Inverse folding.
């Protein structure tokens, strides 16, 4: 059966690998990224959409077009996330004195607000029994926080987790059988993790392709009686 799937953040390492894996499995893929880039090897079954600012007007237009053409998704994956940005001197904080309002604002915008806007937008676009995944991180677990640091990234992923959990409650009332996943992919070789890889053992540094295979496998095995899961790359539940 051909499924329509949506990948938001399709130009990132994990996003690109997801688009390619999902297309190779015969899905029709809607790939949203800021620049709308289309690698030459992507098949015709991938449609690309540029969403430079993820502003709500452009997102509403995207939704209206899909509603009109009757497209409904069985799977949505939002990969959007930021940990550092050298152009804007954004670095995860090591100590309280490193906190800045500007950095916190950027972390929350990219890691929490943009994914939440997509969770709002897709309400009428997801089929019954769809799966909605956001790439979160284990450091967003409040109960797992032993090391401290990374205030903005941690807190914005914790906020994302709360958005996912809260949305799952409302979706249960409004849609049938939609299951949410907050996903920790492990450490994945990407621009996001690049400055932080040196202490990671090579067998614990995953390729985006491996990450994608793990995620898609875990989605197939989800307990669908539970409306929301916070799981890691092994499919093991993480304490919120
Ligand atoms: N890599 C890891 O080790 C690791 C570990 C734990 C969790 N994660 C999570 O996995 C997700 C994907 O990360 P990745 O490793 O694939 O990193 P990546 O290659 O750097 O991709 C980051 C993604 O975030 C989007 N993004 C970044 N800055 C943005 C901004 N200012 N506005 C809107 N979108 C922005 C990009 O969107 P475009 O496609 O539009 O460029 C891209 O899709 C993130 O949510 C990350 O927190 C990664």
């Amino acid at each position: 059966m051909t499924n329509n799937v949506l990948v938001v953040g399709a130009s990132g390492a994990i996003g690109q690998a997801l688009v390619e894996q999902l297309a190779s499995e015969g899905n029709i893929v809607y790939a949203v990224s800021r620049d709308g880039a289309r690698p030459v090897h992507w098949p015709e079954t991938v449609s690309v959409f540029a969403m430079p600012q993820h502003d709500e007007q452009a997102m509403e237009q995207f939704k209206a077009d899909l509603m009109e053409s009757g497209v409904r998704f069985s799977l949505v994956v939002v990969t959007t996330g930021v940990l550092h940005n050298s152009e804007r001197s954004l670095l995860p904080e090591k100590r309280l004195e490193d906190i800045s309002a500007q950095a916190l604002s950027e972390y929350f915008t990219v890691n929490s607000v943009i994914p939440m806007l997509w969770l709002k937008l897709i309400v009428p676009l997801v089929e019954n029994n769809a799966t909605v995944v956001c790439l979160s991180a284990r450091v967003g677990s409040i109960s797992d926080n032993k090391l401290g640091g990374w205030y903005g990234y941690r807190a914005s992923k914790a906020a994302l987790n709360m958005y996912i959990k809260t949305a799952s409650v409302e979706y249960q009332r409004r849609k049938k059988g939609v299951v949410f996943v907050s996903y920790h992919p492990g450490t994945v070789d990407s621009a996001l993790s690049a400055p932080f890889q040196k202490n990671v053992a090579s067998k614990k540094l995953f390729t985006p392709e491996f990450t994608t295979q793990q995620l898609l496998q875990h989605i197939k095995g989800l307990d669908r009686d539970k409306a929301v899961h916070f799981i890691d790359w092994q499919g093991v539940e993480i304490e919120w």
